[in-house]
Amino acid sequence: MASYDVLCGKRNTTKEVLMHKLTDVTGIIVSIFGVGALLAGLILTGQHGIKGEIHGMKVDIADLQQRTARIEVQLSLLLEAWNIDKPDSPTAAGK
What we know:
With 95 residues, the protein is mostly helical. The chain contains three helices and two strands, in the order H-H-E-E-H. Strand 1 and strand 2 (57-60) form a beta hairpin. It is elongated, with a radius of gyration of 27 Å. It starts with a helix and ends in a 10-residue tail after the last helix. The mean pLDDT is 67.
């Protein structure tokens, strides 16, 4: 930032430079705590099985868990069918 200001012929006082740096650091810290709070809220919401709200968007955690379980079952069936088709798999040989 200082090099940009030097190129433009603008000189900042030490106080202005410190305020810019403080604002940047504060923004980073607030962002980190915001993400942590969002994750904690999602975890707590998921544990109690109630509806959560993220940035005005309603999310039904129980519905998401059901969909995830269905996808897991479909993937396991697909993998099982894939293993049966392989000649050297234990399920193909009837073991």
